[in-house]
Amino acid sequence: MAIRPADRAGSWYPAGTTSCETRLRAMLDAAAAALPAPAGEPMAGIAPHAGWDFSGPTAALTFGFLQASDAQVVALFGADHYGLRNAALMSSGTWQTPVGEVRVDVGLGRAILEEAGRIVADDPEAHFDEHSIEILMPFVRHCFPEATVVPIIVPRGAPATEIGDAVGRVLAGSKRRAVAVGSTDLTHYGPNYGFAPRGTGAESLEWVRNENDRRFLDLAEAMRATELVSYAEASRAACGARAAAAAIACGQALGATRGMVLGHTTSHDVLPLGRPTSFVGYGAVGYLR
Known about the structure:
The chain is of the alpha/beta class.
């Protein structure tokens, strides 16, 4: 079976067991202090996937929110940065992290392929270069140490809500406690990303915060998954809009009925280097039933 190594460990997040565990605890402790008490059962979330120095505390809000679920299975829907043609499931194997291995749920992988093989391919190799799930896997191992995972990359053009709904129905039928996570960063703004409709400087940062990112987060909170994809792909508001939409649909199939924005920041807020020019938005959203 495939073994997915922790390729970005040592650069995007700590490589040592102790250093990684310490960092996770610090981020999750800070998240616990910031999060409201959940008024319901956590079922799904959206989290960013940049290097932990930038987006780790925001991702920790999502996983801190979900931790109360005591999940036995985590479905991870990842963004695609390499132009895949089809949604790609890793149906067996393990993911290495500095804090321990995470097993792919073979039984559920097989059931998903039986349910949704028309729209989801069994393609473990697609996961080896893509970082959008890897960055979150140490959170999974720390927060749910006994859980198995179902990792699926959801590329542009894939029927995201149909995929999420199919996965959610399979998970619900398993009678195991399950949660879903969609992995996406928000607006990639500035000359570095070839997208600067408001120029550079403070006005551009405020536009990203209060308009482009905000509209995406409002749609995510309202669980309007189809509209979220259309908006994000027209406005370049997220690199993994379809991963987020799949997580919302999966959460709905598991019983989620309402969402809440847990946090929102940008790389410029985290590390301000003079006048805002190129920066990325990060958001955390949680879903309850």
